[in-house]
Amino acid sequence: MSGTEPAGTDEATRTERLRGAMRCLESGQFAQARALVEPLCDDRRADVILAHALAGSGRSTRAARMLCRLAHDNPTARHPAQDMMTLLLRHSRLEEIEATLQATLRQTPNDIRLYDQLGEFLLLQGRTDEAIEVLIEGCRRHPSALRTGNLLAVTQNETGDAQKAQALLRHLLTYHPQSAMTHANLAHILTVDNRVDEALHHHAQALELRPDDPHIHLNHAMTLLKAGRHAQGWPEYEWRLRIPGRLKYPAERLLPTLKQDSDLSGQRILILSEAGLGDMLMYLRFVPALVRRGARVTLQVPREILPLAARIYGVERVIDPLRPVPAHDWHCPFGSLPRVLGQTSDIIGAPVPYLHADPHKVLAWEDYMPSRPGLRVGVVWGGASRPGVAQAQAIDRKRSMNLAQLAPLATIPGLHLVNLQRGQHARQMTDIPDGMQLYDPMDDVHDMDDTAAIIMNLDIVVSVDTSIVHLAGALGRPVIMMDRYDNCWRWQSGRGDSQWYPDLRIVRQPRPGAWDGVVARVRDMLASAPRP
Prior knowledge:
4-stranded parallel sheet, alpha/beta, 8% strand, Peptide transporter, Glyco_trans_9, 46% helix, 23 helices
């Protein structure tokens, strides 16, 4: 309850104070919000505002007492500390959030909701080990806690402890056999662990319980595609467009699935930018099939790959995503092209090479290359994650290695290593391993058209799973991909080659994080490779 209410406070005045306090909270003026609502009493709205204002002002103990009282009154609802955390995150009050959550947990150590919130907060800060400790304690106190157990399992899986994650989810299913979330998370983790048959079983369970959930359908699609079941996988992948905000243009104008004899003569088709650079480089293989059927194709692609896309024969127009889209009869996101052509002979798209470097640039970049004789090997050791996207950052950590781990490649006689790495991982070149000589042309690279020209001057590319693999593969150049254990769906399970790029060889980790054996195998492959 708030403080002593001034005499004569009528409902209009009370309402105005509450509105003013809310405006102060939204603008981060926590002391002013507190001053406005502290005199009000017997009003739950005022208590909620006051609890948030106290937390934002650093009065964590008092804020915790109020949050606990509010939570006690609504034991089955989400904990009011959740709204407090959301508000204070907008104002970057991280210390205040943590202090209030810790104080609230100390006062009510059996409230499972608080373990979820503190665990989520620590994960947002990248403090994974601390988050796991908090979530483990929550599960110890409440062994059947559904949300806590799922959050812990997903976190354990992301840190490479898939076996513990699977065991925990199976344990939860003994308490909650009808939990679609648990079946879906177990299916996802089994897919990551390349146990696709078991994963598909749990996907089926999840979809039976929640048949209209686009996220479950999307993960189901990833498992089907990883298993090589494209006829089922590509239509299922279309469920991603039902996630709010994913389909930006009218559904009735989405390009339908084509038949072998479909005629698109004169039809204006807009192919929309979607996903990462690697994805779009792979999906560009499907564009020639539309052109061949008479379509007038406009490609919307990032500037980074715009010149490469413009070189595809028959494409009418190429625009970047910042430009207004032209008039069109049909639209199609890049990721829907395999579904569009899935019932035709173009199900795998055009043969490689379906992208081509600028021949003038190829000649110009020759001057930057190490001199012959010798095997020119382009190297990439790190991926590029999207800032603020936790899942992308987790994948980047697993697919990337350190430059120092490539040191064995430098011991091969007659081999020239050429850097193709950009972004944050390129900073590791300030501390190149002893004995490694790394030619670095990347300071003068402006886009992937330049990178393509460099690759055409190389004999082979060695890379972790990045867009460079797709670029080199689409250019028809030999590639060795050093792949993480929990590989992406497009490389399938148990394969050392690729249906997408005939000159690609995959060397995969035998267990999560095990790069040494991968590099040793790559070294042997390069040592025995024919010299030009």
